Amino acid sequence: PQTVDRKRRVMLKLSGEAFGGGTLGVNPDVVSQIAREIAAAVETSEVAVVVGGGNFFRGAELSQRGMDRARADYMGMLGTVMNALALQDFLEQAGVDSRVQSAITMTQVAETYIPLRAIRHLEKGRVVIFGAGAGLPYFSTDTVAAQRALEIHADEVLVAKNGVDGVYTADPHKDPNATLIEQITYNDALVRGLKVVDSTSFSLCMDNGMPMRVFGMEPAGNVTAAIRGEKLGTLVHR
Ligand code: UDP
């Protein structure tokens, strides 16, 4: 499905934690900055986005505190929709057309997830934001980013991280000798026990040859650069 004259198409995974700026809810300054960075790159690339929901709820955490896991996961998914709407708003303010597609039907606020329509939006230069995860409990938004990337034929998954700018030989916050790995195969990352994304997301990308670039959201300009294809952080490939 990749043709030579096609625009670069990326799947950008943003964590909910980033949206909250460290607290519960949405920090408008952070989201508007992200929106402006995406806006600066839409001329040259087609951009799909999956947003997490960790700034609202994480199902696993709520279930540890006594809630039914599946119900807590649905709360988590609903949180991602709020983040998706916030991003849509700031994209609009930055002059970029966007559509939110939700994996859980809520026709008043978002389109339903329809992959072919999502591709059409991308071809028209619209940013497509996928909300509500996969619509399935026990999944993460990292996994959804991998699955959606495959389904819309993205060239690369871009995993934007807070507080770390790629994959390291060891935890850089604990080991002063840890060094950044610029390129690694999925297999080597597995063998060396390097945590990149959760295992379901990892194996989907590995099994289907979807490359993944893990990079830091800081400093400002990194999101734009990653979308444009600059070689930031770590490339994980087959
Ligand atoms: N979630 C889910 N199914 C999905 C995607 C997300 O159940 O397909 C729930 C899950 O409870 C998760 C929460 O939504 O903890 C928020 O997503 P995630 O933790 O991936 O967000 P991030 O860590 O990226 O902010």
TrEMBL record:
Domain spans labelled Aspartate/glutamate/uridylate kinase: 19-215
A Pfam family the protein falls into: AA_kinase
Keywords (A to Z) from UniProt: ATP-binding, Cytoplasm, Kinase, Nucleotide-binding, Pyrimidine biosynthesis, Transferase
Mechanisms controlling activity: Inhibited by UTP.
InterPro entries: AceGlu_kinase-like_sf, Asp/Glu/Uridylate_kinase, Uridylate_kinase, Uridylate_kinase_bac
Pathway membership, UniProt: Pyrimidine metabolism; CTP biosynthesis via de novo pathway; UDP from UMP (UMPK route): step 1/1
Catalysed reactions, semicolon-separated: UMP + ATP = UDP + ADP
One GO MF term: UMP kinase activity
Record-listed ATP binding positions: K13, L14, S15, G16, G54, R58, N162, Y168, D171
EC number: 2.7.4.22
Enzyme class: transferase
Sequence positions that bind UMP: G53, D73, A134, G135, L136, P137, Y138, F139, S140, T141
Record's subcellular location: Cytoplasm
Family: Belongs to the UMP kinase family.
PANTHER family, A to Z: URIDYLATE KINASE (PTHR42833), URIDYLATE KINASE PUMPKIN, CHLOROPLASTIC (PTHR42833:SF4)
Function text: Catalyzes the reversible phosphorylation of UMP to UDP.
Subunit structure: Homohexamer.
Protein name, UniProt field: Uridylate kinase
Native organism: Leucobacter coleopterorum
Gene: pyrH
